[in-house]
Every structure is written in structure tokens, then in C-alpha cells.
Amino acid sequence: MLAILVVFIHNNYTVKSIVESVENGAKEILFVPNAFSEWIQLFISDGIARCAVPLFFLFAAYLQARKNDSYGTLLKKKSKLLLVPYIIWLGIYFIYFGLLKILVAKLNPSMLANPDKTVFTYSAKDWIECFIGYYSGAGDGNPKFAMQFWFVRDLIIFTLISPVLIQLIKKIPSAFFVVISLFLICGNFSLNAHASSAVFYYSMGLYWGIHDFNLFEKIDKIKWVEIIFIFLVAFIYYNIFSETQFMSAFLTLATCVLLLKFSNLICKNERAFKISSCLNGFSFWLYAIHMPVLNDILKRLWLKFLPMKNPFFCLVEYFGVTILTIAIGTALGILLKKICPKLFAVLSGGR
After folding, report:
1. Across the chain, how many H-helices and E-strands are there?
2. C-alpha distances in Å from residue 164, one per residue of 62, 159, 177, 212
3. Exposed site from 2, 21, 93, 165, fewest CB < 10 Å?
4. What is the pLDDT of residues 318-348, one digit of tens each?
5. Structure pTM?
């Protein structure tokens, strides 16, 4: 479910995103929404879906704390789970974008905003931006070859420093909680726009795992009407009155609680639980493959035949391309797992 929500985040045309793309050299895209279509997309991609990556951090840290492996064992496991897939996937996208741009530059350089700049002319800074991110200036610090891999990159870093975080949680739990909370509501870093949220939810996952309290039981005690009301008020206030860091953090937290409570409905439904359990092994695969190539190709093909010339077609693109990306991406994973399970295991980190 969380991987699906990530796809919704990334297939989300807005006036702002299109303007930014055009300023960076992309072709202008026909986009004619109205208030209703914009709010639908906003409600899903910048409302419900904003909990996806924070919960990934929360669960990853919780499982790490519960397993309580030695540091050496932890690094060995995470190398297979995170580092190897990170290097391979970024390498795949490097080959795709690097070779494709060289080919296009030779055949039709007018299609490119900067045809003279290829992988053969990259500076050290360019390579860092493409494979690691953390570049200064405009942007959010994501790896340029595959922006969604900022999560894997940060998780690798958190794994390396996790002994320090664990000691802080054990020695000064209250003070550390106050610090990461302040970090969450005040932090805004040009090198990594996700840092404050990532540190908070990873640390809270460690708190959860170390103290092993029943988080789901506590969340289930919250009434549906209460959490839905809190979420809606936070969502409306954030998007109409105050797009502050504090309100963004509060909205994300409310969304996380809402989705965790919703997960109980899946657990209680035998059929839904069986389906989600079967698809669970493809979560990382979908996360890795859905962009930039698959989603971009589907969007280009879709808009060629069904341009967003009115609000209806804006929503048709939003849901249509997202569903196709999820379906095709998952199907490719199932197919690869059947044909070559070892390769699928390597690309998925052994999951």
C-alpha cells in the first residue's frame, strides 16, 4: 500500500511542477485542471500519500531494533538489503540516461536543452549529484538518476550511525525526543529537504523497537471520527491558510496515524490480507522500477493520445497512468521472479 502511494506522489502534474520542468528545459505540457481536479490530486498525493516514506523509515528502524543484530551483522545484512540494490539500480538508470542522451545528441540535438553536456563531460560535482544527490542550489538533494532512491541513501546513512542514535535513545530518551521533534518542525536544509522528517521517523522506529510497546493497539484506541477530523482539519488548514513546516509535520503525523489505523481493516479481512501478503515481496521492486523510466514512458504515450485538455482528462491521466505504472511494474517483477529468481532477489535486496 505504501509503495502504491509513492507512485501516486510521483505521477502528479501540477501547474507548479510543469512550470519548473519547462524552466529546466522540458517541453510545455497541456494542463487544464479546475479546482475540483486539483483538490482530488492534492488530497491523495499531498495528503494521504505523504505518510508513505515516513512509515517506511518507521518500520525499517523498528525491525532493526527488534532484531538487535551486532553492528557487523547489521552492516552485512544492510549491504545486501540496501547498498547492492542502490548501486545496481542507479547503475541501470545511468546506462539508460547516459547512453540515451548521447544517442539523441547525435541524431537530433534540438530535442535536448543542453546537448553538449553528456556523461563524458560530467564533472565530479555532476557525478555526485546524479548518484548521491546532496547538491547545493535549487532542488531537494535527491539523486538525479533516480530521485526516489534518496530514501535508500538516507537509510544507509542512518544504519551507519544507528549505534549513536540507539545510545541517545537509551541514555537521554526525553531530551533526544525533544531535539528530533524540534528538528522535525523547524528543520529545512538545502542539501536534503527530507532530512528532518527522515531523522524523526527513523528515530521513532528505534524508540518503538527498543521499548517494544504495542503501537497498533494504542492507535486502534483512537476513534475513526477523531483521526479523520484531525486529518481533514490539518489538510485544509495547511493547503489554504498556512503551508508552514510545523503544519506540514503535523499533517504528515496525522496521515501516518490514519494509515496505520486503516491497516487494521486489511488485517481483519482475510482476502485483503492474503492479497497484500502476496504482493508485499514486490514493494521494493515497485518502488525502484516505477520511475524515472517506466512512469515517464507511460506519461509520454498517454499524453500523446489523451492530452490533458480539460479537468476530466487531467484526472484520467492522474489515475490511469498511476494504475498502469503499478500494474506493469508489479507484473514485470512477478515475471522476472519466475524467469530469473536470483536476479530478482539481487535487485530487491533479497526481499
Report:
1. 18, 0
2. 16, 10, 14, 19
3. 21
4. 999 999 999 999 999 999 999 999 999 999 9
5. 0.92
